[in-house]
Design brief:
mainly beta; lipopolysaccharide transport protein A fold; 38-stranded antiparallel beta sheet; rod-shaped; disordered C terminus
């Protein structure tokens, strides 16, 4: 009895795997289709069922012993209530549960519709595959590619070769992409470009949420706006807010105003035409073939291209070949050529606030005051004039010893060929300078007061001093001049702070601790779609339109079709970027790795 039960169960199981069918008309044509039944529609279509799959067609050739059929005309195939497929022609092998469809193939899932010319469907693996070009239609986009593979269990597509996503707002071109239908999440592997009217994004590994219109990009990633280029180890992009942020080794290039800003964290607000950079930010602007560098704790760049304004806050450092400076904050109007060095301490003057006062160095000359303005010609980009407001103090090291000093309430200076050649000091002026003859022998120390003073300089050295409106003073031999009176009230020589080279912009500051970039893992290696089989164990059948040679995996696939977008030209860009001092030492552990974060933000 036990043997009978087991035998019956085995027979029933075998019969359950056979394809069932119904048809209005059945005929045989052994000469043309040996071993097959020809099924035809009269009123109702031919209907096949097999282990959860149903197929309807107008005509069919069914090989009962081989458990295989070929379907012709208005073919429809369904698997449960989640997958439906229509085509002009189809084949199905019940033994291997492998199907092939051709001719205007349309496969529908709850979230997407796939259209292609030919499609292979492996029910055991629950995978569909095309290699002759296909189109996937979603509520948010239309995607085309030469090769595509659909994993039904994960509701995931893998596209390779000539992958293009078209959306009313943008177009994505990639060499390889994974797309999850339910969420609309896309992962890029290889050169990828996201093009829209307002921006171009490039990356070689990235993520994009096609429903929320936001993405995260790593590996050679870049965002090109109309007049800015944003680069960094990782970029976050939100199209709906016209917002982008960059983390680690970032560079923001202004293609209109010939300037570059570097740092390790940046936020870009396109609608407001603003950029905020922190973590060792550095702005480099080209002026008359000479770069001006500005460093501070935070840099903010705002305004339309023709009205660009740079603001720097806290511990501002400025360097130019002929000049350097420091201040609490800085304001640069690129349209008017005005630069303001500002002291944020508005309280009474103390030893601390004196150290914080704006200061400029030119050669061995030092200028300080409550506020310093530098004016350059926007057309020629050359320095034009200098103004110091309140508590102006000019100090210059004597060629041998001591300090020449000039002080007053206000100072105005004029430049020629980017070199200061004239300084006027007004209101309560006072001077102390070491007088020498042509042989540089010291004649004495001259101390004088007057209403205003004019100083002429040559090669950054004081050449002549003119006193106006009842000057009072006297020349005293050095040995008779008290040492404790050789500094005017308010004297504060800060030469040890002077920036000698570009590297001094970061002097005394530790390298920033870079955040660990959460990268995007490489795609899992795909198993071959067409399994290796013996000649007598065919995926389809010997009566199939396709032979074993048609069911071979491709030996190679196109590696890339996405072209790197050409960067907007920047006049003399090399003169700027090549001279920027390194923003950080080489720090380990910042290579992209790990899982995808929700946002690319600083903590």
């Amino acid at each position: 009895m036990l043997l009978f039960i087991l035998s019956s169960g085995f027979i029933n199981a075998q019969e359950a795997k056979k394809i069932d069918y119904t048809s209005d008309r059945q005929v045989k044509n052994e000469e043309r289709y040996p071993g097959a039944i020809i099924l035809s529609k009269v009123e109702d279509q031919v209907h096949f069922t097999h282990q959860g799959i149903e197929v309807w067609c107008d005509n069919a050739v069914f090989y009962n012993e081989a458990n295989f059929f070929k379907a012709f005309g208005n073919v429809r195939m369904t698997q449960g209530d989640t997958v439906s497929m229509a085509s002009k022609y189809a084949e199905y092998n019940g033994t291997t549960q492998f199907a092939f469809a051709s001719g205007d193939v349309v496969m529908k899932r709850p979230q997407t519709t796939l259209k292609t010319d030919t499609l292979f469907f492996d029910r055991v693996k629950q995978q569909a595959y095309y290699r002759s070009g296909g189109k996937v239609i979603d509520t948010a986009y239309v995607l085309t590619s030469r090769i595509g593979r659909y994993y039904m269990t994960d509701d995931k597509y893998t596209f390779v070769s000539k992958v293009v996503i078209t959306n009313p707002e943008y177009e994505i071109t990639s060499s390889q992409m994974d797309m999850y239908s339910e969420t609309g999440h896309a992962y890029f592997y290889g050169p990828t470009v996201i093009q829209s009217e307002t921006s171009t994004v490039y990356c070689e590994r990235g993520f994009y949420d096609t429903r929320a219109d936001e993405g995260y990009f790593v590996k050679n990633s870049r965002i090109d706006y109309e007049n800015r280029i944003v680069e960094g180890d990782s970029l976050y992009f939100d199209r709906s807010r016209n917002f982008a942020s960059a983390t680690n080794n970032i560079k923001v290039t202004d293609t209109i105003n010939s300037s570059v800003v570097t740092g390790h964290y940046a936020e870009v607000f396109r609608d407001r035409d603003s950029v905020i950079i922190t973590k060792r930010p550095l702005a480099a602007t080209l002026q008359d073939q000479d770069s001006v560098f500005i460093h501070s704790d935070t840099l903010m760049i705002t305004g339309e291209p023709e009205k660009r304004v740079i603001r720097g806050f806290y511990d501002v450092r400025l360097f130019k070949t002929s000049m350097s400076g420091k201040s609490d904050s800085i304001y640069v109007d690129q349209k008017t050529g005005l630069t303001k060095l500002i002291n944020l301490n508005s309280g009474p003057v103390t030893s601390v606030s004196k150290l914080r006062s704006p200061v400029l160095w030119s050669g061995e000359s030092q200028m300080t005051g409550d506020t310093i303005h530098l004016k350059s010609n926007p057309e020629t980009e050359q320095l034009d004039s200098l103004f110091v407001f309140n508590n102006a103090f000019l100090i210059q090291k004597d060629t041998i010893k001591g300090y020449n000093q000039v002080k007053g309430m206000e100072l105005a200076g004029l430049f020629r060929d980017n070199e200061i050649y004239q300084v006027d000091i007004n209101k309560n002026t006072e001077t102390l300078n070491y007088m020498r003859n042509e042989d540089q022998e010291l004649l004495g120390i001259n101390r004088a007061v007057s209403s205003s003073i004019r100083i002429l300089l040559n090669n950054r050295q004081i050449e002549d001093i003119y006193y106006f409106d009842n000057p009072e003073g006297a020349l005293t031999p050095e040995e008779e001049y008290p040492i404790n009176q050789r500094e005017l009230t308010g004297f504060n020589w800060r030469g040890e702070e002077r920036l000698i080279t570009k590297e001094d912009l970061f002097a005394g500051k530790p390298a920033p601790e870079l955040v660990k970039i959460e990268g995007i893992p490489l795609p899992e290696e795909q198993e071959e779609f067409f399994d290796e089989r013996e000649e007598d164990d065919l995926l389809l059948n010997e009566n199939s339109r396709l032979g074993p040679e048609d069911l071979q995996n491709e030996k190679s696939q196109d590696s890339t079709e996405a072209v790197i977008p050409e960067m907007s030209p920047l006049p003399n860009q090399q003169n700027i970027t090549d001279t920027i001092p390194p923003a950080t030492d080489s720090l380990p552990g910042n290579e992209p790795a790990g899982n995808l974060p929700q946002k690319n933000q600083e903590k």
